[in-house]
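Two folds, back to back.
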Amino acid sequence: MSTTGGTGAGEGTARARRTAPPSGLIIVDKPAGWTSHDVVGKMRRLAGTRRVGHAGTLDPMATGVLVVGVEKATRLLGHLALTEKGYDATIRLGVTTNTDDAEGEVLAETSAAGVADEAVHAGVAALTGPILQVPPQVSAIKVNGERAYKRARAGEEVALAARPVTVHAFEVTAVRREGDAVEVDASVSCSSGTYIRSLARDLGEALGVGGHLTSLRRTRVGPYDLSVARTIDQLAQDCAILPMAEAVAAAFPRMDVSEEQARMIGHGGRLPSAGLGGGPIGVFGPDGALLALVEEHGRTVKPLAVFVP
């Protein structure tokens, strides 16, 4: 009797018995040099499933909080990506690059020695609040169906329209001077879709010397900050997954419902509004189990995603 057939059948049985990992979030402290896709690939291997995604891309140069969803939690990611984010950044004044960060080619160099600290603070203040921001040419925004960065790297001049974003806070934490260069450390809290590279570029332009981003660390995505983020090495030792119910309760307003209402929402029905705002809102059953994400429409709430079987 061939042993090959027996071994194959055993492996097939083992694969059939393999259970999916629990649904939830992994809060990763992304290392420099890794793409967000690299992190997703690593988490697929560690969690033992291909059903993994992330909320909000981080450039390879950047480090910090990357929210990864596993199994059913991938359905939360689009909503989590829209939450407020926090960053620590360093901006170098006097040097302009074609990517608006340190990974690009230098386009121009100008002495920033004459830029006073007061001018830096005034420039930062002007970029705080609701603003119109032109994304970097090397960005993932699609232009006529193609990513802007692909066109830019092919040598094409990409015209991107300014978009409304909100910079909730833009605080200078240090100004360092070395010869003709000025480096500005800053802490930024902003809406989804805000490019910190563009803030660096626009600050430099406003000061008349140009500028680019030299370092970026994302400190927060919604309620998830560096205090709960874990490095790749830590996750390789213990791939801790934050359960769905805890993840939703931390990120969104909570609505607790009765057994009858739980059955209704489980079948995609609408419930009376609880007055918690537009949404998303997490709906929980009498036993504390997560049932759905909903949004309010007038006097009712409508399901965005239902998680009950």
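---
second:
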Amino acid sequence: MSQTVLDLIGNTPLVEAQNLVKNPNVKLLFKLEGQNPGGSVKDRPAYNMIRKALERGEISKETKLIEATSGNTGIALAMVARLLDLDIELVMPENSTVERVKTMRAYGAKVILTGADRGIEGSRDYAEEQVEKGRYFMLNQFGNDDNWKAHYHSTGPEIWRDTDQKVTHFVSSMGTTGTIMGTSTFLKEKNKNIQIVGVQPKDGASIPGIRKWPQEYLPAIFDRNKVDEIMEVSEAEARKMTIRLAEEEGIFAGMSSGGATAAAVRLCNELKSGIVVSIICDRGDRYLSSDLFDQ
């Protein structure tokens, strides 16, 4: 039976860490979200948010979509929108890597760059201003329940299935928080003892894809009660672990994955036993123009 690109979203592989974990009683598994057709975990919510909005009649092929993004969600939305014949404008900080901007434009999206000094918050403000003027419809990944529900219906069940229901800990970087919210909701329904660990940057650390949001920009979908522990990582830790992932595990990923892995390895070293699953958010090739892999 023939498939479309959209049918390839999800069912990403779990692979076991070979070298990073020295604790013989703990198994660390990486969920390789870069295997999605758009190259990141954001394919899941992007497709779900657009699909559900279409089903509810909130948008049509005449609708102009707009969304603020730090990169991966924008790429995923650009891909899905093009396949569903929708017009989309993506807003991101001007210091985003050129690979991200070019990939969105390659899919046919319009890309607007906002001031680097205001970061993703500035991009969010710009998009909301355009919506208020009545020109656009915003999916709003930060406040859209279809974001986290994508993971409730796919990421969580896949982890439960592929660990033979034995997962004990789930580790995820937190940006929009959709991945950790949806996966936590599903896994806790299956076994309330599964520990959910969110990863944030330390104060002053700049790690693309991981945020510690100011209160006024905290994603509306975030529920602190669904996260058992929050671990903080420094920029140096995230960068070092991103390199180690490539060199020691053969996993080429971005810095948010390095940050999550740094926390996951730290956790594995503390546990007496367990099966830890950590999200590898995307692929490293969209960061080659940055200094991430300079050594």
